[in-house]
Fold:
Amino acid sequence: MEGIRGGSMVARSCTVLRFAILAGFLGWAVGVGSDLPGDGPECVKVLVERALHGPLACLTDYKLEVLALEGDYYYLRTAPDPQTAALPPKRRTYDLFANPVLCNASGPSEEALYAIVIHELNHILDYTQLGITQFAEFGIQYATNYPFQIWYEHATDYRVLELDLGHGLADYRKWIYGVLPDEEAICQKKLEYYTPKQIAAYQLEHPFYYQRACPPDYTFHAEYPGDCFGTCHYTTNCSAV
Structure:
């Protein structure tokens, strides 16, 4: 959920710890095209379809839409369509919102954009495992429990790293730091997601920063199909890790 929280949260997080699509890729994305519904940018649709034919093939049983997202603060986010959110998971529509800026010549590289699309699709994968009551609980925790939000976004980054997409993820973070509007927003991003330096530490097999534990007073139970990650099996059943 690569967005910006409210200013007061930015200020609080920063007291604790002070997002180029190449011209060739732009042409490639337009040339290939996509069958996914929605008015979102074509280059993102193409990479979503690439993911659905690769590491996240288990999402092909679900209805996805890529929709346009405008503004200077948000570049990608995901959510179940409000009109279908109360339905069983396989009857819902899941929306990935993407800022058209991502497909500009000044946007992130193809590798970077693919990595962050994988991150966002993992959020959708999570939503498919939750009933309406569980999803409501998750949404409340994400919105009101900042330690949980940080843990959850780090855990999602970790799944991207497990797929050997660390270089792209690091490049995306470098790009996002360059387009965010101020230092507070950059500080917030560095707190909530892995930084390029932390990703490099993982790639070098240094002691990793990822904490395999839930935030205080909260346990999130949801399991994800192992076949979505090849030989990698991931769980956020924190009582078991």
Summary: The first strand starts at residue 63 and ends at 68.
